[in-house]
Design brief:
Strand order of the largest sheet: 9-18-17-12-13-14
CATH topology of the largest domain: Immunoglobulin-like
Low-confidence stretches: 1-25, 39-45, 63-83, 401-414
Bound molecules: 2-acetamido-2-deoxy-beta-D-glucopyranose
Number of domains: 2
Number of helices: 2
Number of strands: 27
CATH architecture of the largest domain: Sandwich
Helix content: 10-25%
Structural class: mainly beta
């Protein structure tokens, strides 16, 4: 009655993997084994049993000896759970793996799946384990792992999404070929990025450009890393690396965030020479940033070095460019009648963004404030020179009209 491709064991292994490496020792692993009794159907949880478990950590993947073991503590919070079904994969690139349509007798065992997550995000691992019937001692058959579960990248640079797999060479499944698939997921939407049938050495057709696998490395070392040629805003999202063996699969997910801080420009720059009582308007434009998470504010640094906050200014709405980056601006109104900015200083626009903080400044000169500065003196000299010129002009005009009047008088007198 029990078909080989039906559920063998409806079992969950819940693990909490805490990476606390004490010197060269092994990490402490807290482990729960949760078993769900099969037979209810409908996907609702049936009766569950929960027991503490031992987990063996092999430090050398090729050795068969468990080199260290840790006593589990029953105080952990389960992080991940997976239900394992041994059945043929439906995707095209993995279908050749089970094309014989005869399931090996080897599958008649209890199959478990475990997901482990390093608390610092430096490791994620998903394993499929097999325990011969009635033994309760599972061995890892397939492991898929990544050393970076959360990656940040600037725009325009190459990105490596790390994924690797290991399979038990003594398992009959390991000789039957494998397939690798990378899917992209973002806000409920997904697409296939690359898929490779390792048995037939064929890449599936996808619409994705600039995404590659290193096929020789895949076969030689199980390095299934995805290489993105040039990071773009549209690459932000979750990437799922899935490795298929016949009737089995394991996968890990990696988050990629594209973070590009803004470029700032202030206008007008330089600011016009101002006088007390005047109202000035300054604009700061932040462009080319992603994601859309920006705080713009203004600061003033006086001639004496004192810093004053000028507030946020009036924020504009955001615009999105065709490359997916955003721009947004802030307009600051400086009422020199109300603010005491002395003789001026630096007006700075400060942009706080997850990709970094950026600043842009422009110089503000205020003239006519008590106690002349060098700039004031120069301005006054300029004004004085101008006045002198005007007086000179007038005196020349009167000077020439004077003699002409006297000339005419002279003519009348004659
Ligand atoms: C896997 O390949 C990528 C790209 O070639 C490389 O950056 C990475 O270091 C490799 N990982 C391992 C574990 O060799």
């Amino acid at each position: 009655m029990a078909n080989v491709s039906t559920v063998y064991a409806l079992a969950l292994v819940l693990l909490n993997y805490i990476l606390q490496v004490h010197g060269t020792g092994c990490p402490v692993v807290e482990c729960w084994f949760v078993q769900e009794k099969p037979g209810r159907g409908g996907g609702f949880p049936a009766a569950m049993s929960q027991e503490k478990s031992l987990m063996y950590v092999r430090t050398d993947p090729d050795s068969t000896e468990a080199e260290s073991q840790q006593k589990p503590q029953l105080t952990s919070t389960p992080q991940e759970s997976t239900m394992l079904l041994t059945q043929p994969a439906v995707v095209k690139w993995a279908a050749p793996l089970t094309s014989s349509a005869q399931s090996p007798i080897y599958l008649q065992a209890d199959w478990f799946s475990a997901s482990l997550q390093g608390l610092d995000g430096q490791l994620t691992l998903s394993s499929v384990m097999r325990a011969p019937k009635g033994t309760n001692e599972p061995n890892v058959i397939l492991s898929v792992f990544s050393t970076s579960t959360s990656i940040r990248s600037r725009l325009g640079v190459p990105v490596v999404l790390d994924c690797g797999f290991w399979m038990d060479a003594s398992s009959p499944l390991s000789g039957m070929g494998f397939a690798v698939e990378w899917r992209y997921q973002f806000r409920g939407e997904g697409r296939l990025v690359v898929a490779y049938d390792g048995k037939g050495d064929r890449l599936a057709e996808t619409t994705e450009e600039g995404a590659e696998l290193d096929i020789p490395a895949l076969h030689q070392t199980g390095n299934a890393s995805l290489l993105l040629e040039e990071a773009q805003v549209r690459h932000t999202g979750t990437y799922i690396c899935t490795v298929y063996l016949p009737y089995l699969l394991a996968q890990v997910a990696i988050d990629l965030e594209i973070e590009e801080p803004p470029s700032l420009s202030i206008s007008p720059s330089p600011l016009p020479i101002s006088y007390p009582g005047q109202t000035l308007s300054v604009q700061c434009e932040a462009s080319g940033f992603a994601p859309l998470s920006l705080e713009l504010s203004w600061e003033f640094v006086g001639a004496d070095g004192g810093v004053q906050s000028l507030g946020e200014g009036g924020m504009s709405g955001h615009r999105q460019a065709s490359d997916g980056t955003f721009s947004q601006s802030s307009r600051l109104t400086l009422d020199l009648g109300k603010l005491d900015l002395g003789r001026g200083g630096e007006v700075t626009c400060v942009a706080v963004h997850p990709g970094g903080t950026r600043r842009a400044s422009t110089t503000l000169n205020i003239i006519g404030v008590s106690g002349p500065s060098i700039e004031d003196s120069m301005a006054m000299v300029a004004v004085a020179l101008g006045l002198y010129g005007v007086i000179k002009l007038f005196s020349w005009m009167f000077g020439t009209s004077g003699p002409s009047d006297s000339d005419s008088k002279d003519k009348k007198d004659k």
